UniProtKB/TrEMBL annotation:
Annotated InterPro entries: MoCF_Sase_C, MOSC_domain, Pyrv_Knase-like_insert_dom_sf
Organism, scientific name: Streptacidiphilus cavernicola
Domain MOSC: 19-168
PROSITE patterns: MOSC
Pfam families recorded: MOSC
Protein name (database record): MOSC domain-containing protein
Amino acid sequence: MGGVVTAVSSNGEYSFTKPNRTSITLLAGLGVEGDVHAGVTVKHRSRVARDPTQPNLRQVHLIHEELFTEVGGEGFEVTPGDLGENITTSGIDLLALPVGTLLRFGGEAIVEVTGLRNPCLQIDNFQDGLLKKVIGRDEAGAIVRKAGIMSVVQVGGVVRPGDAITVELPEGPHRPLDRV
């Protein structure tokens, strides 16, 4: 099971969107070099306000490019980096991966999946009505979050568009992703 990196993005300043780059460097235990959300402890403003000592389980944000096609069919224009992700992927059902999945990029960098991004109101500030398209409910009424997954860097390295992504599922019973 695998896919490909279609874009990489980072921003050294707090901003909802992140500009695309030719490459990003992942730093073990920290996140994306030079990105405002890199660090051992939480960096997202709302989480810092609650408890700045929490571990940063949101070092690297990944979104599947297929989401852009899905919301595009409903009149929204979303491109890589627009929703603040660091790595845009294609060919992997990111939302179906279990906690603890390892993703290897280009044979070098490795991240461990920690959970789902919890979509926030900033998505509607970006494009009105988009939040309802990236969060919904399934047939049983359970909340479905589609705005990507979060991860921590296990092994550092450079990630570039076009890099192959290898998926390594964890052993034992799999835990479904929940918001982090």
